[in-house]
Amino acid sequence: MTTLTNGTWVVIADSEKALFLRNLTDHANPNLDVFDEDEQENPSDRAQSANRPGRMNDTGVGQRSAMDDTDWHELAKDRFASDLADKLYTEAHKGHFDKLVIVASPQVLGVLRDEMHKEVADKVVAEVPKTLTNHPVDEIEKLVKRELDAA
């Protein structure tokens, strides 16, 4: 069973927002304190696209097909998780945490696993595949404790 010891970091993330919390007590009665927050301004793809998708001529006479345009909104979501992995590496390298619990949507967890430096991965004590970024801290404390008890 993984426990939340004093000083354990808990990072709550989705594809646009990350909350950084530190446990101030123990596992029996966790008290998570929010000490940092990252939020990405990510307008819809439509707002970020310059033009409508391009068109190209097909083999038939007078036939044209639409070309897929880059989905800037999705690209920014993936980049946010990659940036989060970089930030965690910087903090781990500075010795700011020894244990890390990551609570994120499955998609973000996947990107984080791929992008996470070994120095950070070695400090991960638990992963919780849930999206909790918009939950109040007292609910996050209960849910994370419940998930760790069940693991």
Q: Supply the number of helical segments.
A: 5
Please give the oligomerization state of what you see: single chain
Structural class: alpha/beta
Helix content: 25-40%
Order of helices and strands: EEEHEEHEHHEH
Tell me the distance between the termini. 6 Å
- Corresponding CATH architecture: 2-Layer Sandwich
Mean pLDDT: 85
Query: DSSP strand (E) fraction?
Result: 15-25%
CATH class: Alpha Beta
Indicate the overall shape.
Answer: elongated
Q: Would you give the CATH topology?
A: Nucleotidyltransferase, domain 5
**The biggest beta sheet, please?**
5 strands, mixed
* Radius of gyration, CA atoms, in whole angstroms: 20 Å
Q: Uncertain regions: pLDDT < 50 for 5+ in a row?
A: none
Number of domains: 1
